[in-house]
Amino acid sequence: MKLEKIIPRSENFADWYTSVIKAARLVDYSSIKGMMIFEPNGWAIWQHIMHELDRRFKAHAIKNVQLPLFIRSSEFIKEKEHVEGFAPEVFQVTKQGDKDLEESYVIRPTSEITFCNYFKSIIHSYNDLPIKLNQWCNVYRAEKTTRPFLRTSEFFWQELHSVFDNEKDTKEFTSTLIKLYYDFVKYYLCIPTIMGEKTIGERFAGAENTYTLEAIMQDGQALQCATSHYLGQNFSKVYDVNFQTNENKFENVYQMSAGISTRIIGAIIMSHADDKGLMLPIGIAPTQIALLPVLANKDSKVNILVEKLYKDFHTKYRTYIDNSNESFGYKVSQQEVEGTPIIIVVGPKEANEDKVTLIRRDNDTKATVSVEYIINNIDKQIHNYQLSIYEKAEKRLNESIIEVKNIDEFNQAIKNKKIIKALWGGDEADEKQLKIQTSASPRCIDKTIDKGTCFFTNKPAKYVVYFGRAY
Known about the structure:
It contains 14 helices and 23 strands. It is α+β, with helices and mostly antiparallel strands and 471 residues long.
């Protein structure tokens, strides 16, 4: 068997990205544009992400539901701003069998409307609130240009929708969720991010505020990893979602939503992978420890030692023994391509000496160590691996940020593939003009200020904002 060739990053970053995905067998292309087939390796990564996030959601009393895929067109068009944000991307169902439907259905691009209708049916009084719900599902958006994980017409995600009886608690929970994502992305996926609020022009359609995590990829572009939105009463007023207060009055509920999608797998690849293939954080790796026996007969010392190591490791870590007839070189290369964090090689010489060869994927070091050492130190090796890949990504993030004071410095920084930190006093129209001129957009607001001049408009600055070209 032959492994797929990986194109070097220095040659073409976009082609490198695609070749890593193909070589690691994460997804395959279907016959429908923008709709991927998740192969076992790719789906296993997403399952581990789902499992860990779900665990964290449950700690905040969030319950899972599953809502319909279709939305009535008449319901969809009620919320004008929301519809305008998604109208160019929606798929619609107009037939049932060979008959035209009396009313077409929109295939969900997101589920605010469906959740509103559900909340309307189950909320009666303040005693019913708050309600915190999440669904794991697929959604559909007709993308013109598609790339695996980054832009696809069908993608998988979790969308969390919660309703409260007051503004304060809703805003606090919106903040809680973006911090939950920040912690998850940093410590579980080993990706450092910039956390902040979106500018008006970059907010989710229909939201009063959007909070985001922005990561920096190896090519210098930003990628939005997760978002949390404060919706206020925008949707509940349109869809008449209200509750009876303790004063026997009726008031519209306050809402928030939050989500993370399979796009995060693209962020993992472009944050950690190299020219040998994937480099996966320990928590999401389909195989966490690979045991590679060399020249092993059924009852040889090699197999006995491999079985001993498997017995010690497999109850805590996803451990795999490669007993295939492939060459030693192929076995090692396959585990490197697939991003396995720890590779342990056992050959006749090592087995006779009660030793193994340890290969760490983060630095490709090979060390001959005793069996006793690897058994006693496997947790430490994994901790150091996790820390190593995070520190590499954090160093890149810190080195990518540059402060500018005028448009000339801005253009030079963009040319140098930097993330820009600058004073901003523009409005939504200015954001659009900046993007036309530079192909860069505001990624998030860092903080509010009360003095200084906007680098682009020369108006008094409102914020410090991060800018960059983005996926």
